[in-house]
Design brief:
It contains two helices and six strands, in the order ββααββββ. It has a single domain, classed as Hotdog Thioesterase (Thiol Ester Dehydrase, Chain A, Roll), CATH 3.10.129. It is globular. The C terminus is likely disordered.
């Protein structure tokens, strides 16, 4: 059986054309369509656990993206979460399409802060925020499974 990768359980698609990802005049804005690849039980605890997992897969990306142009060749950005908070506003079905709208209003001094909203059928179902530290790591000295796959070194 082949090894399972972190995103294999999810169907993730970029919402829009990607032009909003890196704009030096604005905060980074990332929107994704996301759902699980398999059906889930109708269990509120399972659904919320999956929402929490989804909320963590790309939230630091918004803080990292504005700095990718300054990542030296042969290096990658390896973010580590310092804190992550989540609020559940409504019930959701994580195996149905959700819009995950994310913004990073601040990234400086190796720290990044991002906020996200998960919406389904036009309604806010969950909100989250995360702060993390962003480290530059030599591409040859890392475990790729824990590294954000962006940067000119990859």
């Amino acid at each position: 059986m082949p090894p399972t990768k972190e995103w294999d359980a999810l169907d993730v698609r970029l919402a829009g054309d990607g032009s909003q990802l890196v704009d030096p005049n604005h905060v980074t804005h990332l929107s994704l369509w996301v759902r699980t690849t398999a059906s889930l039980p109708d269990d509120r605890v399972v659904q919320r656990a999956i929402l929490a997992y989804i909320s963590d897969i790309s939230l630091m990306a918004g803080a990292v993206m504005p700095h990718l142009g300054s990542v030296p060749s042969g290096m990658v950005v390896n973010p580590a979460s310092l804190d992550h908070a989540m609020w559940f506003h409504r019930t959701a079905e994580a195996d149905c399409w959700m819009l995950y709208d994310q913004v990073s209003p601040s990234a400086s001094g190796l720290l990044g802060f991002s906020m996200g909203r998960l919406m389904q059928d036009g309604k806010l179902i969950a909100s989250c925020c995360q702060e993390g530290v962003m480290r530059l790591v030599d591409v040859n000295d890392l475990d790729a499974s824990v590294t954000f796959p962006l940067g000119r070194g990859t």
